[in-house]
Amino acid sequence: MDLLNMVVADPSEVTDTQRVSIMRLLRDGLLAQSDWTQLADSPLTEAKQNEWKVYREALRDFPAS
User: Fold this and answer.
1) Span 29-60, pLDDT tens digits
2) Sequence-distant (≥ 6) Cβ neighbours of residue 48 within 8 angstroms
3) 3, 13, 42, 65: which has the highest count of C-beta atoms within 10 A?
4) Which DSSP string do the residues of 37-52 spell out, in sequence order?
5) CA–CA separation, 8 and 4 (whole Å)
C-alpha cells in the first residue's frame, strides 16, 4: 500500500510541496522512534549503533539526497 494513501484521502489532490511535508513528517517519526539507538545506555552493540547512526544520517539528509 502506498504511504500517501494512508495519510490522505485523495492523493491526486496533494501538491508536491505537501508531499514533501508529509514525507518529512514520516521521516521525523522514524527518527523519533530510533532515538533510543543512540543513547549511552542502549543495549545495542557498538557496531549496531553505528549502523543505526548511518541510517539516521540518511534520514536527516532527506530530501536533499
Assistant:
1) 999 999 999 999 999 999 999 999 999 999 99
2) 37
3) 42
4) GGSTT-SS-HHHHHHH
5) 6
